[in-house]
Amino acid sequence: MRLGRMLEELFGARARRGQLAPAIDVSEDDANYVVTVELPGAKKEDVTIECHDRVLTIRGEKKSEREEKKEKTRYIERSFGAFSRSFTLPPSADPDRVQANFKDGILTITIAKSEEAKPKVISIKS
To answer: Label partner for 15 (CA 20 to 30 A): which of 2, 25, 64, 89?
Structure first.
């Protein structure tokens, strides 16, 4: 829970209680924020990303592909169902420059930083 609280404090991350909450990583470099979401078993078509009023929301559904059989199931750890994660973008993020890629069950969202937020190199004059 410590990571969840830290993300909420630093990046405004929120997940709804009782819903599937995929694991996420948030990182940054001088030019971008990067949100990486683990979605094993999900398909690209089942995921949507929206940005409204500086809140980035990732929604989707992991569907069970099990066939109904007459055998008994004893234990299942895989989770299926709807999920939603929301992040309040920091003031330095540019909500108009967001890109997303989905490969091998990993969703990677790159949010560019505004030009004002990027570090400026100052040359030293003699």
So the answer is: 64
Q: What is the pLDDT of residues 13-39, one digit of tens each?
A: 444 444 567 889 999 998 999 999 999
Structure tokens at 78: 């895989």
Residue 44 near residue 102 (C-beta atoms within 8 A):
yes
Count, residues in the chain: 126
pTM of the complete model beyond 0.90: no
Nearest to 38 by CA among 95, 79, 89: 79
Name the nearest CA neighbour of 63 among 45, 82, 77.
Answer: 82
Q: Residues 58, 49: contact at Cβ < 8 Å?
A: yes
